[in-house]
UniProtKB/TrEMBL annotation:
The gene is mobA. One of its GO terms (cellular component) is cytoplasm. Belongs to the MobA family. Gene3D superfamilies: Spore Coat Polysaccharide Biosynthesis Protein SpsA, Chain A. This is Molybdenum cofactor guanylyltransferase. It comes from Photobacterium aquimaris. InterPro entries: MobA-like_NTP_Trfase, Molybde_CF_guanTrfase, Nucleotide-diphossugar_trans. NCBIfam families: molyb_mobA. One of its GO terms (biological process) is bis(molybdopterin guanine dinucleotide)molybdenum biosynthetic process.
């Protein structure tokens, strides 16, 4: 199994954010900081290897770290970012988190890494009710399956996972850690709750 230091983590900020009015979600501010900074604040104490997958505003994102875009056109979603990461990063184990989860677990990296076995292809976080398919740690051996999957026109992330040796990692003790904010209404409601905590 990988140690946390052997993993490289990617913040996925490459989507179109159509439900957020087309605004670049990673750069939307919450409590005075852009989403991307909230995610980095959580990840940085856990790993020294962080990159950002972004297809827009790359110069702005470079203020926060290493940036790379998708190599597949037309926004194939998280799988596009995963595909690009496997070509951009040399590590065997690459983890992913979305840019719109501002309160990820402070022990995410160590728990995800510890759950992996030598034959694990993909470890996916589970909040006790649902898997969180974009919070994942995968081995680069899945790249041929991923490329064939994308070439076939498929985009549903869970269908790819079912073709691989997938495990789930229990985070039911931190179920709220995976709240993601997709619309201005969700952002507003979360901000009100966040300020009242």
């Amino acid at each position: 199994m990988p140690t946390p230091e052997q993993t490289h983590w990617v913040i996925l900020a490459g989507g179109q954010a159509s439900r957020m009015g087309g605004n670049d979600k990673g750069l939307i501010e919450l409590a005075g900081q852009p989403f991307i900074q909230h995610v980095i604040n959580t990840l940085a104490p856990q790993t020294s290897h962080i990159s950002i997958n972004a297809n827009r505003n790359q110069d702005l994102y470079r203020q926060y770290g290493d940036v790379f875009g998708d190599s597949i056109e037309n926004y194939p979603g998280p799988l596009g970012g995963m595909h690009a990461a496997l070509h951009h990063i040399d590590n065997d184990w690459i983890g992913f988190v979305p840019c719109d989860c501002p309160q990820l677990p402070a022990d995410l990296v160590v728990r995800m890494a510890a759950a992996c076995q030598p034959d694990t292809d993909i470890a996916v976080a589970h909040n006790g009710d649902y898997i969180q398919p974009v919070v994942t740690l995968l081995h680069r051996r899945i790249l041929p399956k991923l490329e064939a999957f994308l070439a076939n026109g498929d985009r549903k992330i869970i269908l790819l996972y079912r073709q691989c040796n997938m495990i789930t990692v229990d985070f039911s003790d931190q179920a709220d850690a995976f709240i993601n904010l997709n619309t201005p209404e969700e952002l507003s409601q979360f901000g009100v709750r966040h300020e009242s905590n």
